[in-house]
Design goal:
- The chain has 202 residues and is mainly alpha-helical.
- Helix content is 53%, strand content 0%.
- The chain has eight helices and no strands.
- The longest helix has 18 residues.
Length: 202
């Protein structure tokens, strides 16, 4: 029997590895709790979100659109219920839709130039992508499907309709795309990469 055949037979044996080298490796996940890799996030409850949203809307009514935008981005809802995340998402959309197109770039530049401004624009990018994906933390906003009857045309009533409940309409999508373009102009493509690679989701 050749050396190659002997080696092959030894490799096929189940007992070829008798030492658990992972237990000896200090960088192995067996030697530390992998949950400690992520810092704990404070949980934001629905009453907290309602209070925050009321403050943001008050700033918006007072004419301080930049303050409202900062306020909505400084406290993103990373750890909270789906309804809390959806409520804050709606507030962010209201703020974005209330700002004129001519004010977008100067406002983003002012925010970006301040301390922590880069992180705020990254948070804004997360909300933009969430809004473009449908806006719901449960996997996209859908039109309610109860009490539906087949139409005479044979087409079902199920499906997306402009102006449906909590649905991002064509106008809303246009606003989100405009903001996306402006954020990329100010913060660069790195904002997209950071948004996609961040484990924290809004």
């Amino acid at each position: 029997m050749s050396i190659i055949q002997q080696h092959s037979q030894a490799s096929l044996s189940d007992a070829w590895r008798t030492i658990n080298i992972d237990a000896l490796d200090p960088d192995s996940s067996q030697n530390f709790d992998t949950s400690t890799l992520h810092p704990p996030l404070p949980e934001i409850t629905e009453p907290d979100v309602r209070q925050l949203n009321a403050q943001v809307r008050q700033l918006l009514r007072g004419g301080d659109a930049e303050g409202a935008l900062r306020g909505s981005l400084e406290t993103p809802v990373y750890n909270g219920s789906d309804s809390a995340k959806d409520a804050h998402m709606q507030t962010v959309l209201e703020v974005l839709q209330s700002i004129k197109a001519s004010e977008m770039t100067p406002m983003l530049q002012r925010i970006y130039a301040t301390e922590g401004g880069s992180e705020l624009l990254d948070v804004l990018m997360k909300y933009l992508y969430r809004g473009m994906s449908g806006g719901s933390s449960s996997g996209g906003i859908r039109t309610p499907t109860r009490n539906l009857t087949p139409q005479v045309t044979g087409f079902s009533q199920i499906g997306s309709r402009p102006g449906g409940t909590n649905e991002v309409t064509g106008t809303g999508m246009s606003v989100l795309l405009s903001w996306h373009e402006k954020v990329v102009e100010v913060a660069g493509l790195g904002s997209i990469e950071r948004c996609m690679s961040d484990w924290r989701k809004v």
